[in-house]
Each structure stands twice: as C-alpha cells, then as structure tokens.
Amino acid sequence: MSGGDQQVSPDAFLAMGREVIASQPFSVLIGAELHALSRGYIELQVPIFDKLKQQDGFAHGGVVSYLADNALTFAGGTAMAVPVVLSEFKINYVRPAIGERLIARARAVHFGSSQAVCTCEVFAVQDGEEKLCALAQGTIARLPDPSQKST
Amino acid sequence: MSGGDQQVSPDAFLAMGREVIASQPFSVLIGAELHALSRGYIELQVPIFDKLKQQDGFAHGGVVSYLADNALTFAGGTAMAVPVVLSEFKINYVRPAIGERLIARARAVHFGSSQAVCTCEVFAVQDGEEKLCALAQGTIARLPDPSQKST
Amino acid sequence: MSGGDQQVSPDAFLAMGREVIASQPFSVLIGAELHALSRGYIELQVPIFDKLKQQDGFAHGGVVSYLADNALTFAGGTAMAVPVVLSEFKINYVRPAIGERLIARARAVHFGSSQAVCTCEVFAVQDGEEKLCALAQGTIARLPDPSQKST
Amino acid sequence: MSGGDQQVSPDAFLAMGREVIASQPFSVLIGAELHALSRGYIELQVPIFDKLKQQDGFAHGGVVSYLADNALTFAGGTAMAVPVVLSEFKINYVRPAIGERLIARARAVHFGSSQAVCTCEVFAVQDGEEKLCALAQGTIARLPDPSQKST
Q1: Angle between the A61-80 and A10-22 helix axes, to the nearest 10 degrees?
Q2: ipTM greater than 0.90
C-alpha cells in the first residue's frame, strides 16, 4: 500500500487501502472501516459495538489508541509512498469515547525520505454530533533496508 | 479496583484485578491475562492468536498499545488507590511483536494525590525468550469530581 | 497571569503576559518576546543569537523545547484562567532550527476545570520565510491545592 | 563525537564529550557539565544559578527539557556511534526543580543501525538529596545521508 503507484485514481487508492485493512486480522476483529484515503490523509472509523467497551460502557482506550496507531501509519505511509512502520506516537485522551462510532482523521504534517510526522484526531459520534475524544502525534519511519540488522 | 481496600491479601488483590479485566469486554476480546498485580505494579499478558495480527504475521501495534494503555492505568490506579483515568501516554515500538505471547510490565515511578507517572515495557516471547518490543510512559489522573464540568 | 482577570482588554492582557515573561529569568536569558496572547492562544518568539546555538550553527534543540514548554503552558493557563503547571509534553523536531528567529504558536485544543491539552508549532524564520521546525503536544494541569501533598 | 573511535579510553571518551559540550554555545550559556559518558550512557549536570529560574524560584522547565534533550541525544549517539539527531522526545515533570543542581542520567534502552530509543531521568539535588523531577523518553535518529532531501 504504502509504496503504491501514485498514478491511481482516488477510488482505486481507497480500494487499495481497504484491501490493506481487510488483510489485517486485528483491524477486522475491531471492525475498522476506511472512509477516506489520499496521500498523507486518512479517515478511519470504528462502530462502537459492545465488545469494544470497557467496564463503564465507553469504548476502551485501547480501541482509541488502535485507531490512532493505524491512522497515523496510513497517513505517513501514503505521504512517503514507501513501506513504513510506526516508530512511536503519543496520545492524549480528552473525553470518554461515548457514542455510536469513532472517527479518526490523520494527516502528514511533515515528511521527508526517511520519516513522516503525523497528527491524528479521534472523535466520538453521539446522536450525530462529533466530539473530540483524543489527540495523537507520531513518527512514521521508512522501513529499514532488510540488509541492516537491529541489535 | 483502583480505589480498593489496601488491607487485602496479595491473592485477593490479584483476584480483584482479574475481576476488573473480566468486566472489560475489550480486554476479554483481546484475551488479556492478569499475571501479577500489587500497588503500583502490574504484569499483563496477551497470547498472540491469529486475530490479533496484522498483514505481516506480527501482533498489530494496536494490541501492543492496548497493553500499554491498560497496564499503565492499573499501575497508576493501584498506586494512587483512587478511581483513575489514563490521561495520556507515549509509546516507542522498538521491535516487531513476533512470538507466542506479549508481556507488559508497568510500574508507577512517581505518584501524588492527583496523578501518577508510570512506565511500561512490552516484551514479545518467542521460543521462551523475552525480547523488548515497546517502551511506554504515561500519566494517570485521579478521576475529576463528578460535580466538575469539562467544556 | 493564568488566573488573570477575564475582563481586561487585549492590550492589557498582552502587557500582563509580558510582565510574566519578564519575571522569568530564564526567558530573559533566552531573549523570549511575547508577540500575541489571548485566552488559549500565544505567539512567543526568540531571535536566534549566537549563544542559543549548538556546534553546527543551528539553534539548540533545548531552545526549541523551551519555546514549546513555555508556549504550551501559557496557552493552557490562559484557557483555564487558573494557576497551572506544565504536566508533560512531547515534541517532534522536523527541521533544523536555522535562521534569524524562532516563532512558537500554541493553542488550547481542549480544556476543562482540571487540565488542558494544547498543541504548539515552532517555526524558524529565514530570509523572511517561515518553516516548520517542531511540533509539540502537551498537558497543562491546574496547580494542585497546596493542602494536597505529593509523595 | 557520536561517530567517535570506539577504542579510546574512558577518560579520553569523557574528554571528547566535554569538547562537544564546550562547542555548543547554548550548553555553555546554561552551564552544563558532563560528569560521565560511555557508550549508551551519560550523566549531565547543571548548577541552578539564578538566570535559569522562573518567576517562582524553581529552575525553568526549559532548563529541564534542555537537559533531557541533550542527554538523550548523547546516550543515543554514543550507543550508535554515528552522527545523530534527536528526532523526538516526551517528558513528564513530576516535581518542581528546586535545589542547587540538576542531574540528568540517560541511557540507550534499544538501538539499531538507524535509530535508538533512550530514557532519561532528571533529578534535583537539594541539601545533598536527589529527588526525581522529570522523566523523559525519546528517539535518536541516524543523520540522514546528505544526498537525501527532505520536502
């Protein structure tokens, strides 16, 4: 995906992104839906079904952090158009994730040949109204050459 | 849990922690297992079954961030012994999460009456060997008085 | 400052902010200049003189992190209008801080009665052109009641 | 420094590190002192003189973040032994920086050929007693090949 052809149409690009999501068993388990994708931008959604909740009826923080993790990675990967990995991120939870659906929107704020810095907002939708529930910022790194070894 | 009685035995404390995990549908979905719990310390594990993976066969970053999220919160909550919420955290992924099982160990490094700062290491266990795959640091806040309003 | 009167004029508010900056010896040492201040927003600048540089002629990362630290705190403090302290922040450096001047702009993205989450962009100005050199996100906390004790 | 000869004696290594600090005008302005340096480990200190303070008499948060910034970079650079740059870091302030001196100790927790993840503790020394005042975690990246261009 990340290294995808830059000449494809917007619809084909979105379809390619959906194939990537569909190939991630954990994204399927969580029920992630890709709603928009372009170079350096993604909108990823998750309907809040019961199995995603914690004891108080809100979506678990881990669902919100999953959304941030995946959305940041797609934003950086599509911006750089090379195979990437999420190097790190930081997330602030600002409101409980209450409602029918979570929407994560991430964008690449800066990118070069070796890394991208992306930001992500996660909104909870309740009765049709979006409320910010988390804010994230992270670094997406070009996958190191397989010939290089980590210690 | 977080506000639990401080006079309970270690076994009863662990049992109480397991009840909290069992009451979180998302933790059940992921298959989280509480292996150790004391004031300011937790060891939380997740066997890596297929549905937790991403397209390359590793555990998805969202599973690792779930572990950090939940472990940090328990470490802070048991240290402060009041109802808490995870305010924010930062995570660095240092190795792919490959293997049979993930182990998160979190501890409260500093805490006061209003917040705790905790760190968490996540290890992947492959062929019996633990390898560090992520490092996290976060802030756990005492739940604000329900009479206070957020804007 | 943070707990200042909300009825003051914009000019008086800015003047009050400048008094706070002038009362911080480290801000004076660095040469910080307050260019704009309103509730939840600040623009703080630093002319890059030689003593702020590192060995390669760029402004030292510590100058950039000082700007983020101070700007985030002012954005949160003026939004909440109570005495505050910077609880934590995260910063990504995206470009070397080269040029005549650094400009930090921070805003409160969300705030309640106990904390604010703010973001900050730091730009380097070279030959009149602004370029993003760092991106930060942090938590500003209401100063705990002095009767509460930290352990 | 970062790419220095790995065969040098501990004393020579420390002396090389002090030359780097002495070549950073901002480190000289702040009064940073290098007390220990080895591959993947550093202890950097700053005596708290009046110009480093904020309005309440504590060392300014920007001094603490400078220490974290520089210590993390040295820990990563000496671990990787190549020219590096601090990519990002996160810092939690847990206590006011009160006392005669600040001590930052940073270590490389994991490193490969392209990046290192390091942690740093900053202590304030008052009446001879060290108290933790901040906790940081960051990513140090190998300097990109000059032939690669950032956009």
Answers
A1: 130
A2: yes
d(CA C93, CA D89): 9
Chain C contact present for A90, CB below 8 A = yes
Domains of chain D, CATH where assigned: 5-142 (3.10.129.10)
Average pLDDT over residues C122-129: 96
Low-confidence ranges of chain A (pLDDT < 50): 1-4, 148-151
Find the mean pLDDT for residues C31-56.
Answer: 96
Q: What 3-state DSSP class applies to D57?
A: coil
Q: Which residue has the higher pLDDT, D148 or B57?
A: B57
Cα–Cα dist A69/A54, whole Å: 19
Answer whether B67's CB lies under 8 Å from B91's CB.
no
**CB distance A69–B61 less than 8 Å?**
yes
Q: CA A107 from chain center: how many Å?
A: 9
Spatial distance between the Cα atoms of D128 and B133, rounded to a whole number of angstroms: 37
* Rounded distance between C-alpha atoms, residue B54 and residue B65, angstroms: 14
Q: Does B94 touch chain D (CB under 8 A)?
A: yes
Q: Enumerate residues 4 to 63 of chain C having a beta carbon within 8 A of any beta carbon in chain D.
A: 20, 23-30, 50-55, 59-63
Helical pair B61-80 and B10-22, crossing angle rounded to 10 deg? 130
Q: What residues form DSSP beta bridges with A45?
A: A33, A103
Tracing tokens 């662990």 back to the chain, one arrives at B14
| Summary mean pLDDT of chain B | 92
Q: How many residues does chain D have?
A: 151
